[in-house]
Design brief:
Length: about 140
């Protein structure tokens, strides 16, 4: 398996690592939206958020919290944008969280894709019911 993030975690590919725990590594994105754009990855090769073992979810997202705070305080950011792509737009198939510094007027306009409306109130209700039914079965 050839995974650039696994290579970064192993130290085989150079990256600016800014945080490391037993289970995760954070480094600067080499093509940032803005300077200070961090990627946090699990140390083990895990493809999507759904694949992350339940016991690792809390520690992983505690790292997200610490990094979000660091971006605001260390870089003087007014806020952050935090995102995860699963499969679609996931340029590297290894779970990673984007932690991006934000400032008013920085040019980043909400989400990067056009918003879509539901076809009707019925479509809205049907979509909600499909999700509720799935969650009841879990």
């Amino acid at each position: 398996m050839n995974c650039i993030f696994c290579e970064i975690v192993a130290g085989k590919i150079k990256a600016e690592v800014v945080w490391r725990t037993e289970a995760a590594v954070a480094f600067l994105d080499h093509r940032p939206l803005f300077p200070g754009h961090i990627l946090l990855v699990p140390e083990r090769h895990i493809v999507t958020l759904a694949d992350l073992p339940t016991a690792q979810v809390a520690p992983f997202f505690q790292s997200v919290q610490k990094l979000e705070h660091a971006v605001e305080k260390a870089l003087g950011a007014e806020g952050t944008f935090i995102a995860i792509n699963n499969h679609v737009s996931q340029s590297v198939p290894h779970l990673h969280v984007h932690i991006v510094p934000r400032r008013k007027g920085d040019g980043l306009k909400g989400f990067f894709w056009p918003r879509q409306k539901y076809h009707s109130d019925e479509h809205l209700a049907e979509t909600a019911e499909k999700l509720r039914a799935f969650m009841r079965e879990q």
